[in-house]
Write a structure and sequence with these properties.
Low-confidence stretches of chain A: 1-9
Strand order of the largest sheet of chain A: 2-10-9-8-5-3-4
Number of strands of chain A: 13
Shape of chain A: globular
Helix content of chain A: 40-55%
Strand content of chain A: 5-15%
Number of helices of chain A: 14
Oligomer: homodimer
Order of helices and strands of chain A: EHHEHEHEHEEEHEHEEHHHHEHEEHH
Radius of gyration of chain A: 21 Å
Distance between the termini of chain A: 56 Å
Largest interface: A-B, 83 and 83 residues
Structural class of chain A: alpha/beta
């Protein structure tokens, strides 16, 4: 490489409309927050911002859990953090798998040397609570793990029955809220969810880089009573809670700018109000669905259990998956997601999350698809979406 | 908490001069890079930026190692990433411990179920290569781990002898370059270092949030031949190398803004030139030392083995550690670091790293110390520093 290639170069980052599975577009106020001067990780001003972020996160998680803070890495690290702190070798763990991220939880359970028990569901369908009950009756489970909104399928899992079952069997309920948090209600305390993790770059509208987690007091107690060492130092909650708690004991250098960003993103969530934010995700999702259906693009997720922030659709017969997505990106500056796992090449995943969840996004995407797909009447999809907005 | 507290609030981040153990001040061009629009983690523009970052990192690491990229978490995660990928349960691992971060390596080795063998050194002194040789003769070590610049003591460890010994004993050499990278030469290939990790927020001048790592082909081969699973999913190099390599297989959502930042920070390093950058760290460190000595503040690290970017000093008798550091921060907007571990309450750690490593920093700090410390002649320290600059 010729190093002079870099002289005086500056990055030329295009303005994409991000309608994939995340990241969503980052609001200007959040970008601006990252443009602030650096602080030390023990600076009183930064410590105050940490406390404020914890309180804002409790609000959006719907919890009073003391141990609620953003882990210093992305959502998958949050998944690993919750699991590796709670699981000791040989613990019986039930994992519900009806998509790519349920399978990832199962993978990590094995890496933590838990004894894995899978409850399977079809991709695109919810997990049947009865199957969870049967498994709970068959094994002495310490934890039941389940994904709230499966990013690979667009399914939104009902949690109430499963939460009650876990409680009856004295098992912890651990929920993946990566895609749901900030887009649909996630009421940890009211729903009896003991442990949850999420990300910053989807419905919360931050940049990717942190993973909010929350542990109930009961879960914290289980961590403190472990007989074996937590296998990860970086994700060790006993140590991390001494930095995020009153003790302020150095553990690692927090990603300061990322914390400015999540703090500002959470303030935007707070200012909009959760009810209004959930309504917004619902509305634009309905308009998008109406538009897509009008041009023969069908949703994959089970009816009645569709996550508003992520619409998964079958790619119409004869349509070139990669070709259409490339043209959307290159010619229209719009990103949508391809299929993951068993849906690879068969599905598109369209995200309407956080800042990206707005009427302009729906209209721009439908209009582009009208251009790009064969045998589609111009304006058919846009008009179908407009009807949903008019009825609002 | 009254949620209206947050309405229209904006963060009020003060402009600190960061002269602690890191983060250092972030250059404006790097802050601006983070203020750019979000991209998807498979966007061709982002993939190109990833490739460029890997190439720039190879330059500053002094290596042609293919597997050279920033892990999506802070420096301690880089430490854990290198160790947990290489260590299988029962492997014999030698860890050199003469400070806080050597001790952290030893802790993680145990969490990876490696068989730990410690070579101890006094805090403030280098590790004696002879002690390493003796340990290598006594055990069948798979890896020798050592810290290049100990952030807790300011000691810069010579590596050549130890590298030759490791090679003779067919052990991998794993080096912590968290504080050294970008401030002193780190020539992985020329020095025979097999594995290294660093951070972004010290001498590279980025914000904290990523951890550059580099693995030699030999180390990569060892990872691929493992008989046991890597205990971390998030840090699994076999999976990560499929995202940072040509395959571009989704593993986790990369922290996009952090990658803009490290890319820009590395371009600044490249533009300055490594030789000039190393000289700058040396010069200002000498000026600082001259100033401190002139007012009776003594360095702790062994003479001849002092890391230029981190000067550790004894707190003068009768001086209130926390009080002086608080006044420096509140009245002068200057951060310096307190002591860690056995140096807690006994040492200050003064960093001159990256953007913070400049004459203005030296003069501002010395001048503030002249104000704050008892029985110090005004301008004595500043004049001693100026003499070093004049001789340059």
């Amino acid at each position: 490489m010729n190093t002079s290639d870099f002289k005086n170069s500056s990055q030329q980052i295009p303005n994409r409309l991000l309608l994939g599975p995340g990241p969503s577009n980052t609001p200007p106020r959040v970008l601006t927050a990252m443009n602030q001067p650096m602080l030390g990780y023990l600076d009183p001003v930064f410590l105050e911002l940490m406390d404020e972020t914890m309180e804002l996160l409790r609000g959006v998680f719907g919890t009073e859990n003391q141990l609620t803070f953003p882990v210093s890495a992305t959502g998958s690290a949050g998944m690993e953090a919750t699991l590796c702190n709670l699981i000791e070798p040989g613990d019986e763990i039930i994992v519900c798998v009806n998509g790519f991220f349920g399978a990832r939880i199962a993978d990590i359970v094995k890496r933590c040397r838990g004894k894995l028990h899978v409850v399977e569901g079809d991709w695109g369908n919810i997990i049947d609570p009865e199957d969870v009950e049967n498994k709970l009756n068959a094994v002495n489970a310490k934890i039941v793990c389940i994904v709230h909104a499966e990013t690979s399928t667009g399914v939104l899992q009902p949690l109430d029955d499963i939460s009650a079952m876990a409680k009856r069997n004295d098992a912890l309920l651990l929920v993946d809220c990566v895609t749901s948090l900030g887009g649909v209600p996630v009421n940890l305390d009211a729903s009896g969810i003991d442990v949850a993790y999420s990300c910053t770059q989807k419905c919360l509208g931050g940049p990717p880089g942190l993973s909010p987690v929350s542990f109930s007091d009961r879960a914290v107690e289980i961590i403190h009573k472990r007989k074996t060492e937590i296998q990860s130092f970086y994700l060790d909650m006993r140590l991390l809670s001494n930095y995020w708690g009153k003790e302020r004991v150095y553990h690692h250098t927090a990603p300061i700018s990322m914390n400015y960003a999540i703090n500002e993103a959470l303030k935007l969530v707070e200012e909009e109000g959760l009810t209004q934010r959930y309504h917004r995700h619902q509305l634009h999702s309905q308009a998008l669905a109406a538009g897509l259906e009008s041009i023969g693009i069908e949703r994959i997720a089970q009816e009645g259990h569709r996550a508003p922030m992520l619409t998964s659709v079958s790619i119409p017969d004869g349509v070139d998956d990669a070709g259409i997505r490339r043209r959307l990106l290159e010619e229209y500056n719009i990103e949508i997601g391809g299929g993951l796992g068993v849906f690879k090449g068969k599905a598109w995943r369209i995200g309407l999350m956080g800042e990206s969840c707005r009427k302009e996004s729906v209209i721009r995407l439908l209009s582009a698809l009208e251009d790009l797909l064969p045998d589609v009447t111009q304006l058919a999809a846009v008009e179908a979406a407009e009807k949903v907005y008019a009825a609002e």
